[in-house]
Every structure is written in structure tokens, then in C-alpha cells.
Amino acid sequence: MSASVGPLDAFGVTVGFTGDQAVVGVRGEVDLLTAPELAAILTAVIDGGHSSVVLDLAETTFMGVAGLRIIEAATDRLGSSRGGLSLRSPSAQVRRLLDTTGMAEAVHVAHDGDVDAVEVEEGEGAEDVDDRLGPEQTASVPGTPVTVEPADPARQLRHVSAIPAENDVVDGALRLVVALAQATVEGADGVSVSLHRHGRLTTVASSDQTILDMDADQYATGEGPCLDAAVEGRWIHVESLDQETRWPAFTAKARQRGIGGAMLSTPLLAEDRPVGALNIYSHATEAFAAKDQDLASIFATEASAILRDAGVDVSDDQLASRLADALRTRQTIAQAQGVLMERGGISEQDAYTQLRSFSQRTSEPLGERAADIVGSTQRGCQVSPAQPEAAS
Amino acid sequence: MNRQLGDSLDQARRDAGLSHGELWLRYFELGGMSTALQVEAFLYGALRPTASDHDVLAHALNERFVELGGNHPVPYSEDADDADEARRIR
């Protein structure tokens, strides 16, 4: 969605699956800016258990060393499994690059129309590649020229759509949404994501079995907050399932399970169309304040879109914690604003400007400054916003 | 004018080596309330951010420049009224 404008338009990755084989099509330029997206998608595909991956380069207009590193890393990961990584229809530029970096020695040459195309070998060749990737060494290694025919690409590839709903990248993103929503929305005891698949709603990620069952109850009875959000795109806030009368069949089942607390269902939107819902359950009634609802909706609609569009590697633990950090910092800044507003009798905006100006003057990150201010109230001492060095 | 402002923001994003997704995350981290799509529109000058939105975005970029060993090259809204002031690297 957000990739529809801008200079990076030329770059795009598609993923398709035929049996056990995953076909990753790469369009445009693979450079330092775009390589992380390709790496993330390949990682997610491999994490998803696909042992045979074809990298279709028919529409790759340029590949830099960053792209080679990705091929190398994927080869390493897939090396010991059955299928491995295959390159399909590399351009003359890519073949030259493979050649000059010595990676050509590690690839098989396939004839025109050969489905296997170019297969990167695992083994001693692949290890050698590691040392040859430095740019300063690229010219010094004589490689066997690659004589891949510019294969009339096995065009079965063209049927792959842009990141199909079933793929692992999306599932990984949704699991992350679930984990983060549970960690950051106060009062959240369980979280799930429902998605339309094959014409019906399915829970693709959930924090535990009870939540999975609660979702299933709604699918089975054909009613509930999750359905209203996922099907009609409505934002549903239930203060107490015990007291709720809108979905009698579902709430009866919920009571049987001993769940009678609050529930928040936020639609997931793609192209303004509801494609699923983020469901947050609490054991307590009236558990969700307005800010929790804001957080849930921002998170549900934005983070899942960002994760997909940016191709962020959601299987990466570091990234998951980075996202969690971002949310924590955001909350800390809001708290610090509150402290400054109370101390100085100033507006929310002025409080923010104070924080930002301080950060600007001292080059101390705004989030750290905010944490100092929040910390100072907990220790009971004062930190003036103008003070250049905050006590720590 | 919008166009120029947007262009320079997107140029700053590229100079900072941030993807649209990463910049949005940093903006969100600093309290930004606009969607990723809106932020992208700000960058391209298709939408004009409010002064406070602009400043959050500018600060997200500037913190990145500080990480890279630089200063705060992206002007804030209070600087932007005066083009000379805006160009002055603090």
C-alpha cells in the first residue's frame, strides 16, 4: 500500500508456493536500501519450513554485494536441507557479479528452460565465497564465467501475487502483533488475530489455547465482537462479556468457559477493506481505557501494515524487541509530558517542545530525557528541563 | 513550498539511511500519531504535516543523524519560517 509511490517503487518482492517449493520473485534493484527487505522475506520463508527456495531474478535490474550476501546467507541456511536455494534467470549484470566475486564457481549452470536454473552449491565453494565478498577483492578472484542462458524464464512465476495472504511473512508479523499487544496494552490477558482465509475466518495467531477457543466459539456461533470487526470493519469494545446482550450465543459459551471480562476487537484493514481483527481479552471488566483502545487500533492497523509493506523481518528477535522498545519509549515520553505539564502548568504541546528542545541542545535522545524525568519523580527529586546533565 | 519541504524531508531520510518503515517506527516511538501512509505523504510533499507533526518527524531524523555522528540538520517548524535560519546547521 505505502509502496505505491516513490523512488523505491521499482523494487518489489513476490512470494509464491508450489508444493514444498517457495518461489521468491525480485523486481528492481537490490541495493543497500532494499536488501534488508529481501533478506527479511527470505528469512521468513525459510523459517516457515520451506527447504527449497527459488530466487527468480528475471526482473531484477541490479544487484549489489548486499544482494550476494543474502544469497550466500540463504544458501548457508538451506545448504543441509533437501532443496536448497536456486537462482532463476539472473540478468547479465547479476551473472557478471557472480562471476567477478567468484560466486560463479559455486553455481551450477542450467540450460534454457531447465526448471532448476542455477543452483548454488553448498560446501567448500560456498565457504570460499565468504572471503570473496569484500568489494576490494572482487576484481582479484578469477571466476569461471557463468554461461547461463538468459532463460526464457519459466514463467509459471508470473502467477505469483504480491505477498499472498497465506505466506509466512504475514503470519510472522501477526504473531508479533499478538505478542506486542499483550505486552503493551494494559489489562490484556490474551490476544489473538483472526484473518479471512479461504473464505472463512481463522485464528492465525493467539496467545494461548483459551483465546483460540474463544475465537472458535465466535466462528462456530457466527457472532461476536471478532466477527463484527473482521467482517464489517467495526471497532468493538465490550466492557463486560457477562453483561453483554448483543451476541447471546457467543456470550453463553464464554460464560461456560468462565470468561466474562472485557474485550476489544479492532479491524485489520487492507486497502480500506476489513481482512481480519485483532482481539484483546481481559479477565477483568472495564479493563480497557481509552488510551488502550487507541494503542490497540494504532497497533492493529499500522504495525501490521508496516511489517508487511516494509518487509521487516518479523522472525528476528532483535526486531521484536526493537518494536517493543519503541512502544515503551512512546509511553515514557507521554508520562514525561504529563510530569512537565503538572510542574510548569504548561500545555501538552509545550511540554513536548521543551523535551525536544532539550534533546536538540544536548544531543541526548528525547526518550532518554523523558526516562530521566519520569525516573526523577519516582525518586522524588527534581530534574529541571533546562538542566543539561540529568541525574541518572 | 510544500513540495520543497517534502523533498528535503525525504532527502534527509535517504541521507540518514532509513527506510520508510524504520522512519515511521522512530516517529511513532517519539509520539507521532500519523499513519505510515500519511508520513510517506509528508515526505513527498503530498500532504502538509502540522507543525508539531513536522517537528516529531524532523526530530526522528535528527536523532538518527546524531547517531551517525552528525548534528541536527533538519530544521524544526520554528526555523522553517526563515529559510536562512532553516539552512543553518546548528
Which descriptors would you attach to this protein?
heterodimer, A: 392 residues, alpha/beta, Transcription Regulator spoIIAA, Beta-Lactamase, Arc Repressor Mutant, subunit A, 3 domains, 6-stranded mixed sheet, 5-stranded antiparallel sheet, 12 helices, disordered N terminus, disordered C terminus, B: 90 residues, mainly alpha, 434 Repressor (Amino-terminal Domain), 0% strand, globular
Structure description:
- The complex is a heterodimer of chains A (392) and B (90).
- Chain A has helices at 35-47, 65-78, 92-100, 124-132, 168-184, 209-221, 225-232, 248-256, 290-309, 317-344, 348-362, 366-379, and strands at residues 12-18, 21-30, 52-56, 60-63, 84-88, 118-119, 190-197, 200-206, 236-238, 263-270, 273-281.
- Chain A is an alpha/beta fold.
- Chain A has three domains: 2-159, 2-Layer Sandwich (Transcription Regulator spoIIAA); 168-309, Beta-Lactamase (2-Layer Sandwich); 317-379, Orthogonal Bundle (Arc Repressor Mutant, subunit A), CATH 1.10.10.
- In chain A, strands 1, 2, 3, 4, 5 and 6 form a six-stranded mixed beta sheet that branches. A five-stranded antiparallel beta sheet of chain A has the order 8-7-11-10-9, with helices on both faces.
- In chain A, a hairpin with a 2-residue loop joins strand 10 (263-270) and strand 11 (273-281).
- The longest helix of chain A has 28 residues, at 317-344.
- Chain A is flat, with a radius of gyration of 26 Å.
- Chain A starts with 11 loop residues before the first strand and ends in a 13-residue tail after the last helix.
- Mean pLDDT of chain A is 72; it is low at 1-9, 109-167, 310-316 and 381-392.
- Chain B is mainly alpha-helical.
- Chain B has a single domain (2-87), classed as 434 Repressor (Amino-terminal Domain) (Orthogonal Bundle).
- Helix content of chain B is 64%, strand content 0%.
- Chain B has helices spanning 2-15, 20-29, 36-43, 51-67, 77-80, 83-87.
- Residues 83-90 of chain B have low confidence and may be disordered.
- Chain A binds chain B through residues 1-2, 5-6, 8, 32-33, 36-37, 298, 301-302, 305-307, 309-312, 322-323, 325-327, 329-330, 333-334, 349, 352-353, 356, 359-360, 363, 365-367, and chain B through 10, 14, 17, 19-22, 24-26, 28-31, 33, 35-37, 40, 44, 46, 52, 55, 59, 62-63, 66, 71-72, 76, 90.
